[in-house]
Amino acid sequence: MIKNILKGIKAYTGTFKLISKLGIWKYFGVPMLISFLTATLIGFSAWGWSDNIGSVIAKIWFWEWGSETFRTISDIIGGFAIVAIGLILYKHIVMALSAPFMSPVSEKIEAHLLGVNHVHRDTTNAAQLWRGVRINVRNLCMELLLTIPILLLSLIPVVNIITSILLFLVQSYYAGFGNMDYTLERHFKYDESIRFVKKNKGIAIGNGVVFMAMLLIPIVGIILVLPLSVTASTTETVRLIKESGRLKTPEILQKESNV
């Protein structure tokens, strides 16, 4: 697991060079805009709603002594909760809406890695968008089911140190999952993709760790997170599919068509 996580992180090495070499920066324009606008909306929401959430949390403290301190802590927890849930929504909204733009990028990277002019595709842009929505809605529900209990446990002193790490890893896994699916959708059906990512969860986590870390960098991180994470994910996902014997190269497709 740890070895694969490190592989997922290491895949980011050389992403700038590869993107520039293939001339695919132009494909990231709309996704970058989607990413920036979504992050801005979530940021303002966290700022405006933290006090409201904090006041609700503060009501569980019935005593007079320490009430002001607990209210301050409640506001911080409220803001943290909104940011945590906001990051979940951010990932899945951006990834779902960016699918028609990221899939062609993944194709070009895969073609380069295989040394061919193009890779085979059976789906349309509409199908890519629907697949992106379907995968990300599924991942959103799963992630929320895991995140809410973790957030509740974070109210317990000392335990919240562990839950913070756990929450980061959960978010990283589903971020990496979404990035991997831009490549997987050309090779696997919906259910097969889910099983494939579960089998290679270390790679997904590693990719997502850098994805989540980049979101902590103001503006620049939000703008560059998709180009770099999708490029890194594609290189690793193509490798994994090739190792599994499921990679359909032009030669294999030609043989299948002659059967």
What key phrases describe this protein's structure?
single chain; 259 residues; mainly alpha; 10 helices; 80% helix; elongated; disordered C terminus; transmembrane
- N- to C-terminal separation? 40 Å
Give the averaged pLDDT, no decimals.
82
> Regions with pLDDT < 50 over 5+ consecutive residues?
252-259
Radius of gyration: 20 Å
Strand content: under 5%
Largest beta sheet, briefly? none
Class per helix and strand makeup: mainly alpha
Query: Helicity level, as a percent range?
Result: over 70%
* Number of contiguous helices: 10
Cα shape = elongated
Total domains = 1
Number of strands: 0
The H/E string reads: HHHHHHHHHH
Describe the fold and architecture.
This protein is mostly helical. The protein has one domain. The protein has helices at 2-10, 15-22, 29-58, 67-114, 125-153, 159-184, 190-199, 201-214, 220-244, 250-258. The longest helix is centred in the middle third of the chain and has 48 residues, at 67-114. It is elongated and about 70 Å long. The two termini are 40 Å apart.
